[in-house]
Design a protein that fits this description.
Elements: E1 4-9, E2 13-18, H1 19-23, E3 26-31, E4 34-39, E5 42-52, E6 57-62, E7 65-73, H2 74-81, E8 94-96, E9 101-106, E10 113-114, E11 119-125, E12 128-133, E13 138-143, E14 150-151, E15 156-160
Antiparallel strand pairs: 1-2, 1-7, 3-4, 4-5, 5-6, 6-7, 8-15, 9-11, 9-14, 10-13, 11-12, 13-15
Protein name: Acetyl-CoA carboxylase biotin carboxyl carrier protein subunit
Pfam families: Biotin_lipoyl
Domain Lipoyl-binding: 83-161
């Protein structure tokens, strides 16, 4: 099956590569992370400097010029369109109660600057204290809950700007 990959180089140049063309490249691994490519009788030396499997992002050096390459296949595009891509949690703009409970403490107020994993509030549910932490860096827009009040599942507690 011939699979297509959307490729973005240095966040500017975009093109599509198909798996059949990639298989037919005249490339040899000379050392770990080092390759020799021959294309239309023109040689190129390629080195993989950095790779991130989760984001499919690679930094490569081709003939002493560095490039950042991001590769996306059809499944990645579908996952991204559904909002399930890696890092999608960083786009959370509000925190809702994950379960009914009692707000024991609120550690932030509107205007506070928070970072990932900053404790925001403590919600008691079924005699257990649950610390609700920030899913992203940001500024608190509003705090809807009040210390000592009960909340229902799905009730808005905190909004980010």
């Amino acid at each position: 099956m011939n699979q297509k990959f959307n490729t973005k180089v240095n966040d500017s140049l975009q093109f599509t590569i198909d798996s059949e063309s990639a298989k037919n490249l005249d490339v040899i691994e000379t050392k770990p992370q080092l390759f020799h490519l021959l294309e239309q009788s023109k040689p190129s030396n390629i080195q993989i400097i950095d790779s991130n499997f989760n984001t499919k992002t690679y930094t490569i050096k081709v003939n002493n010029n560095s490039y950042t390459v991001k590769i996306e296949d059809d499944l990645d595009a579908l996952i991204k369109s559904l909002g399930f891509e890696v890092g999608a949690s960083k786009m959370v703009n509000d925190i809702k109660a994950p379960m009914p409970g009692l707000i024991l403490d609120i550690m932030v107020k509107a205007g506070d600057q928070v970072t990932v994993d900053t404790p925001l509030l403590i919600l008691e549910a079924m005699k257990m204290e649950n610390s609700i932490v920030s899913p992203r860096d940001g500024v608190i827009k509003s705090v809807s809950g009040t210390k000592g009040n009960t909340v229902d599942k799905g009730e808005l507690l905190i909004e980010f700007e």
